[in-house]
Amino acid sequence: MASSIPSTTTLRDVAAATGVSVSTVSRALAGKAEAYRISQPTVDLICRRANELGFVPSQVARSLRLKKTGLIGVLVPDISNAFFSAIAHEITRAASDNGLSVVLSDSCDSVVREKTLLKQLQGRQVEGIIICPIGIEFSHLQGIHQTQLPIIVVDRIQQRVSRSDIISVTTDHRTATNELISRLVSHGHRRIGVLQGLPGTAPCRERIAGYREALRKYRIPFDPHLIAGDQFTIASGRNACEQLLDTFLDLTAVFAMSNQNALGALQAIRCRGLSVPKDISLVAFDDHPFIEFLETPLTTATQDVKELGQVAAKLLIDQIHSGKRLPKTLHRIPAKVVERHSIATVH
Amino acid sequence: MASSIPSTTTLRDVAAATGVSVSTVSRALAGKAEAYRISQPTVDLICRRANELGFVPSQVARSLRLKKTGLIGVLVPDISNAFFSAIAHEITRAASDNGLSVVLSDSCDSVVREKTLLKQLQGRQVEGIIICPIGIEFSHLQGIHQTQLPIIVVDRIQQRVSRSDIISVTTDHRTATNELISRLVSHGHRRIGVLQGLPGTAPCRERIAGYREALRKYRIPFDPHLIAGDQFTIASGRNACEQLLDTFLDLTAVFAMSNQNALGALQAIRCRGLSVPKDISLVAFDDHPFIEFLETPLTTATQDVKELGQVAAKLLIDQIHSGKRLPKTLHRIPAKVVERHSIATVH
DNA sequence: TCCCTAAGCACAAACGTTTGTGCTCAGGCT
DNA sequence: AGCCTGAGCACAAACGTTTGTGCTTAGGGA
Predict the structure, then answer these.
(1) A59-113 pLDDT per residue, tens
(2) Is the Cβ pair B64, A64 closer than 8 Å?
(3) Which of B3, B59, B323 sits opposite A123 (nearest CB)?
(4) A134-165 tens-digit pLDDT
(5) CA atoms of B141 and B123, how far apart (whole Å)
(6) A61 touches strand C (CB under 7 A)
(7) Is A64's CB within 8 Å of B69's CB?
(8) Model pTM?
(9) Among the residues of chain A, which ranges form H helices?
């Protein structure tokens, strides 16, 4: 036995209380009074009665009639992650400013959950979707896109997404990583380990590309064994860092792909009695309010999360308001390198 | 020019493609076949056609007919805040496990926004609301509650909320603070400053109560001037800490009400060339994954955010499923003190 | 042969809006 | 007096479901 919706004063109730028809009440309350020649006294009376009865128009009825819900779907791998919650914050704000509500879905880093949630959003008749996909699979996104439902992919574009015509907005990982690694090299580092996140995802691939780009620029040979790790987590960062420290005794610097990875690295480095940056320099992707308060504030490549969220929201809302699909575009948001104190100079 | 909902295969389309009536399709798809004596071949055919046409039942139409939307509202002051996003994570997960969707609202720390968003949620016919209020005002919550809409208040219960019959779930701030301060005292501290958050909010009041309780236990006089600050932010923490350091030259310890406040304190302490815990001991409320990686890992009182979210979700979902309002209850979730290395012993 | 029963489905109303169209009445003009 | 016009509102359909009830047919028993 499920509960029913409480507040149930309808247009009809207001109409009855006023002595006019339902349509008149609807038009009066919608501000279409003079377009339909409803006299001012009538309008006033209707408004008064509506207030007295605490009338709140039913959005479900409106949605059904108007064939639009004013709902957008936001699907993230983990809303408790600072990165995604910052994006969600921007989107929610923008949505609310445009009279839209967001229904939030959390895939808990599971692809199967991601798929079913996507279907659920569709069933809820959302007018558009912003998704930060897990980044492994892709077909379900393409499926949504073919249904003409506006969809924006943020952060982890899959390789084939960039080839398809789905709109995406993502950080320019390559350029920022290139810059970050270049700083290391210009401080004399030549053996630079990489703590990577989920392999195959766009951020991962592109950061590696930026890493190799920087090495090439300085004519440093690329050694694939310098890349370790398999997730964006503390544990993965720690294991990978330990592995690298054990394997490469001439290692002078480490690039962590996320701040979680960096924390893991910090653990590994501490455990070996080493310190940053004296023994090992450490740089990371992704900033965090806490990072400058660490034992040694890390030099990082900071994604412009606010911009990511705002651009994604704008792209979606524009489509919803215009009713037109935008052409495929790959929006690249620059990241900026924030210099702190985790790079030592070596000779 | 607004867009219309894309996927628009309806029951009628499936019915037409199958050669049966709409009601038959509805019942077949709802699994009520044998209750309404629909033959197995017919059911099979209907299912096949439905799949071919990519039929997705309209939740708005169902909502209208059934008078329930399967939507719950979650309203937080700032979803990008780790505390609230962790709560939202738990709620979202629980909701989805129970076939409910959550519509997320972010009041951006504004009471007026909070009020209008609450109205919006009502209009969306959500079946229940979980709100982390700003904590200043209260009447609008009471208004919702009177409308019979289940509402759960998490974290910042206003004084009058606890007197009203609204269900709330919150951390046991008082006990945890008492314990935290007691640790300081047992290490010899007697002049303990407090960096407070938004004054008047429940967390603030109760933590002060716990602070005073601990002092009383050890027969240490309470000095109201030892309390400074006015927000849960880094800036407030910094200013307040500077003020205390300037005023009380015999200050040996500081209790920060949030980790943001603690970071501010860290800044202030650093700027004066002091260090934690050698010159000043520092403890804080609220944990954070980063806290153990700080220059000096802080001893904290850790809220059980997961539990907070789960209990709130369960309380709401139970009400929705049962259709009954639960009696007023004040759920207290214990916090645990995590000892790290920010308390020095003084003599 | 007739009636009854059960199987198998169709009809129609209802949920609360929005909106195109139609209806009525009063007043002014000829 | 008759007609026209515009003011002021009501009627009804439609959006896509769900569900109570009614209808038709086939088959079996008397």
Answers:
(1) 999 999 999 999 999 999 999 998 999 999 999 999 999 999 999 999 999 999 9
(2) yes
(3) B59
(4) 877 778 888 887 788 999 999 987 766 666 77
(5) 15
(6) yes
(7) no
(8) 0.91
(9) 11-18, 22-29, 40-52, 59-66, 82-97, 111-123, 139-146, 159-163, 173-186, 202-217, 234-247, 259-271, 305-322
